[in-house]
Amino acid sequence: MILQQLADGLVLGSIIALGAIGLTLTYAILRFANFAHGEFVTFGAYLALLALGQFQVLSTTTFGPLSFGWPLLASLAAAILATAGLALLLDRLLFARLGRAGVAIAVVMGSFGAALALRNLLFFAFGGEPQYYSRAIQIALPLLPRSVLGGVRATPDQLAVLGVTALLVIAMHLFLSRATLGRAMRAVAHNPQLATVTGIDVAAVVRWTWIIGAGLAAVAGVFAGLTVQIRPTMGLDLLLPLFAAVILGGIGSPFGAVLGGLIVGIAESLAVPLVGAEYRAAVAFLLLILILLVRPTGLFGERG
Amino acid sequence: MVELLAGPLAYLVFFLVIALYYALITLGLNLQWGFTGLFNVGVAGFVLVGAYSSAILTTPDDPGRIGGFGLPVPLGMAGAMLSAGLFALLVGIPALRLRHDYLAITTFGIAVTLQLVALNLQVLTGGPFGMNFVPRPLYDELGGQGGWNLAYLLFVAALVLLVWRGLARLTASPWGRVLRAIREDEAAAAAIGKHVFRFRLEAFVLGAMVMGLAGAVYAHFIGFIAPEDFLPILTFQVWAMLIVGGAGDHRGAIAGAVLVWAIWTGSGMLLDLFVPPEGKAQAAALQVAGIGVALCLVLLFRPTGLLGRRG
Could B98 and A292 be called an inter-chain contact, meaning their C-beta atoms sit closer than 8 Å? Predict the structure, then answer.
């Protein structure tokens, strides 16, 4: 049983990690806790669902044992673009203006209002019923026999989610450590004044932060839809684990956000047999309080 | 008298009791945000704790769950304030030493967690079915439905007056001046030797206690509480009330609560009239989305609030 819980936690954790990378970047570079980030996840999931309806006409073949094929990948791309566009639009209409006013908490409040509006508009447009990308039932493959600590089973889709997440995390790492833009992002996160003085185009960095953060959130949304289901509250339910992951990893550390996401996901999964599945979200909260008490800067953070 | 208290007047009484319940919560939030600059996103959680604490303490014994303890209602209300204050300590101690956004995140978390507990800890809270038979003191003596509602309105109005005057005295006192100093310039307040963390914690806990009291007021008025009475939307409504009324002004907080509640129920009635039953859930979502947009618009164009000004 314990191995199976770890595996389930890993899948959940990789979805949290993808969302948390974007949240930690916007937190560090734009300097506010974005409560609308969870809605980017939901928006991405629904947009992919909408696009899938169009693309499915072209092809219905799936990749081997997976439940999806090219149409879902095309829909994923569409969702990434649309969610990035939504983030840029929100920044232009709301966050940038509130940020200029100088009251730090006004931006947080604005993100709160935007989250409420977005979530309910999605509910209005799509209804509250859970939806799925595919109705096909997937057989979980045995990866380890039952004799080894209860064994491990996983669906091909879950394995795909893990694999793609790993690739994205490696790509993010290379981007932030090697690419000029990535290094500029780290510089702005570290010290915006100094970054401006050295000639970094802060406006461009802010723009790309939104694009990357919202894009990864959309991927997280599609993966959550693929492995669980698509609901208007899926982003809201993820928000607390996302914040716990970001703070656990240390604000501004993408690597920390990934590790934090995996820890939160596994902790939630391990807690299920102890306290029951219904208290899952409370686990993230307890972790959060614990980190704030013991080490508020997180595992890899520099600022308090 | 009896006929008059049925129909529109009875509705007005009911409306006002609920509006004043919101006014109490808004007064609590005003102390936290308006005077101290503490961003509490978990208002609904503290109200929930108050309502459930008072209900557990005062309901008659129920074999299906722990309690009720059948205690007198005033004790229940005191217990409501106490337990809301304790939960405020639980989030305030780790979060208030840090940057503002940490309090936002932790209060958001406690509201989510308390909602889960109310929904699932059936042995204490009755779970999704909620708690029935929350006592309505002197119900029969005051003439049942109509007369009692009116009497309860007077009681709540007196309570709002008491809390308002009490908070006004506190915020005008040297203690209140320190709060405003912290809100305006934390570093300066610390530099003149004020213990910023302690003042913030005191304001946060006191505000949460007022919210807990409001929860008890609600529970003993309706006589029945369920987890869905304290959803995150409650937090939004109260924020909208405070922002409309103008943060930092006690009278504005009360006026904002009554005004926003009037708009809210009014638009709800219109939806009821014009939207077919099957579209109701979605129309309600649109109503909530409207609040979100309104909140953003006020922040953008009238950051000092619609009625008053922060000061």
Answer: yes
